Amino acid sequence: RIFDREAILIALRDEPPFRAWIEDFEARQPAPGVLLVTYRASWEKPSGPPAQSLRSSVWVHRDGRWQIVTKWFRY
Question: How far is residue 23's CA from residue 37's CA, in Å, rounded to a whole number?
Fold first, then answer.
């Protein structure tokens, strides 16, 4: 599943506080000025068992800083 910023904010609006952390964080450089970041996100909510998901994001070095790529294009 893919979530955008608005969908995440709507989903979190009614969530009770919970504990979350990341593990296995890695940043790989597949090309100059590009990073692929991967990690395991874990969380524990007051109700329900602990959960995990594998996450990734692509970052580009642009205008002197690292920025996450938020638009994907299909050709």
Answer: 12
Q: How far apart are CA 40 and CA 55, in angstroms?
A: 6
Per-position pLDDT tens, the chain of length 75: 778 888 889 988 888 888 999 999 999 999 999 999 999 999 998 888 999 999 999 999 999 999 999 765 555
- DSSP code for 17: P
Reduced to 3 states (helix: H, G, I; strand: E, B; else coil), residue 54 is strand
Contacts of 18 (CB under 8 A, 6+ apart): 43, 44, 45, 46
Nearest to 65 by CA among 30, 29, 33, 31: 33
pTM for this one? 0.68
Look up residue 14 and give its DSSP letter.
Answer: T
